[in-house]
Amino acid sequence: MCPDAIRLKDYPALLLATTLGSGYFPIAPGTVGSFLAVLMLFLLPEMTAADLLAVILVAYFLGVWAAGRCESIWGKDPGRVNWDEVVGQWIAVWFMPRTPFLLLGGFLLFRFFDIFKPSPVRDAENLPKGWGIMTDDVAAGIYANLVLQIGRYLYTSLF
Q1: Distances in Å between the alpha carbon of 158 and those of 22, 101, 137, 152, 154?
Q2: What does the alpha-carbon distance between residue 1 and residue 3 come to, in Å, rounded to a whole number?
Q3: Number of folded domains that form the chain
Q4: Distance CA 43, CA 39 (A)
Q5: CA 44 and chain centroid, separation
Q6: Residue 114 CB neighbours (<10 A)
Q7: First CA to last CA across the chain, in angstroms?
Q8: Residue 1's pLDDT is what?
Q9: Helices H, strands E: what count in the chain?
Q10: Alpha carbon distance 90, 112 (integer Å)
């Protein structure tokens, strides 16, 4: 569908799915989305793990809707959709103190797993519409979180 055919009712989905338009960034829009997710966490007040989980769940289900809508407009897994990176990045640092070192570690690990997509990250892409777009990044975020948790545990145990 050409951009002229986008209807007014599609704009809320487009704004969310592109993280307020950052998905249109010409270079690495997924990395831009991940960076914005870290920036949001760094600037917003501290949340409990339960509060962050609630935010993640709401963001995930809204993202499934928005990404699915965008896929019907732009085709399969459009690169402009980067809200999935935001949600995956938040998962990568869930249960972590918001220190610059851990936020950076979560960012790098999430980008690694999102780009290289080990199984089941790649398998999750095969889910239909917005489910596949969002869920592969959830899986990448879980992998990143596990590695970060293990690294943090080892570091605090040894030093």
Answers
A1: 40, 17, 31, 10, 6
A2: 7
A3: 1
A4: 6
A5: 17
A6: 25
A7: 56
A8: 47
A9: 7, 0
A10: 15
Residues of the chain with pLDDT under 50: 1, 4
Distance CA 91, CA 78 (A): 22
Q: pTM for this one?
A: 0.94
Q: Which domain holds residue 16?
A: 3-158
Q: Which two tokens stand for residue 58?
A: 């709401």
Token readout for 25 is: 């960034």
Model pLDDT for residues 134-156, shown as the tens digit of each residue? 999 999 999 999 999 999 999 99
93 three-class SS: coil
Question: Would you state the structure tokens that stand for residue 124, as one six-digit string?
Answer: 């999750």
Distances, alpha carbon 112 to alpha carbons 32, 68, 116, 150, in Å: 14, 25, 6, 16
Closest C-alpha to 147, from 107, 87, 106: 106
- Residue 39: helix, strand or coil by DSSP? helix
